[in-house]
Amino acid sequence: MFSLTRYTTRCPEPINGQILQMVVDNLTDISSVALPPSNLLYNIYQYAIGFEVHLYLEALNGEKGIAVELVVATDAEDPEQVIGFLLCLPVKDDPEACGIPFMAVQAGSRRHGVGRAMMQDVLARYPHAELACSVEKVPAFEAMGFQVRGARDTQVLMNTRSYGTDGLMGVLDVAAIYRSLEVQQIHAYLLQRHGKRAMVDAERQRDRHLDQLARKVQAFVTGERG
Length: 226
Hints:
7 strands
């Protein structure tokens, strides 16, 4: 069993730490890039996606000028143990709408209704929700009431309604993360350790991987609508 807690202000640091560890552990699963750990650039995306989630958690206090809510699932027998989280971005000027940028459940707690319960908690307040996911996850979100609306780069765009909201949703500038000193330092370390040729190969592998994902999504969406 598990319990759900909703945060609209910053949550305790132990909770934050477990959420960020979950992001790092499930990077391939929750990132639109979905790089495998074998790619040398994996560490860069681990840092960048983790830092992005960190910034959203910081934004819970409202200081960054965007609306953020967080649903956390904890083990009923061990309330200090986080087993799932869902980040929600309420839409300005549309009180029924939200976007869901990140959601994850610990591997050992999957298929026990944790993800569905967190989603139901959000949809009870924001019935018009939108998210993007991999092709493989479409059936799971369809079972939660979402429908395919199209493609968004390497992911399938899904919504609980057949149209998007006209309201504005505040999001973070993630491009700045990839230009940060920290990412440059990680890249420099990887370059020094593996060499230029290996890093160039990793970048080519990443680009081919992203192209394959985008084609897969387009084929799925076209077939879905055909």
